[in-house]
Each structure stands twice: as C-alpha cells, then as structure tokens.
C-alpha cells in the first residue's frame, strides 16, 4: 500500500473530478481525492464502497471492493 497525502495539485484535481461526476455533496469529497491520487492510471484503489468510487474514477482506475 502506498499512502500519499494530498497536495494542492491533488486537491485541485479532486475538485475537477467532483465537478465532472456531479457529486452528491461532501460525501463524495474523499472519493474524489482517492480518484485524483489514482491519476494518472494505471492504478488500483481498494474501497468498501465500489460504486461511489467508480462514479469518480470511471474506467481509468481498477476499483476493488474490500
């Protein structure tokens, strides 16, 4: 596992991800940061909420439910 703190560039990218995905509010913010950290692909993201993260990542990132 590679734990990476979000930088300013990652946070800005996460904002663009939220805008593009049509978020349901603050509940998607962490998913957007995870999606931004996974960019550029290829990457694999482990999550307990696969559907929400897929909405943020699309097909660029492999999303695995744990």
Offer a few descriptive terms.
globular; two-stranded parallel sheet; single chain; 66 residues
Q: What can you see in these coordinates?
A:
With 66 residues, this protein is α+β, with helices and mostly antiparallel strands. It has one domain (8-65). Helices cover 47% and strands 12% of the residues. The chain has a two-stranded parallel sheet. Helix 1 (8-21) crosses helix 2 and helix 2 crosses helix 3. It starts with 7 loop residues before the first helix and ends with a strand. The mean pLDDT is 81.
Summarize the structure.
Helix content is 47%, strand content 12%. With 66 residues, it is α+β, with helices and mostly antiparallel strands.
Set out the fold topology.
Blueprint: H1 8-21, H2 29-37, E1 44-47, H3 50-57, E2 62-65
Helix pairs in contact: 1-2, 2-3
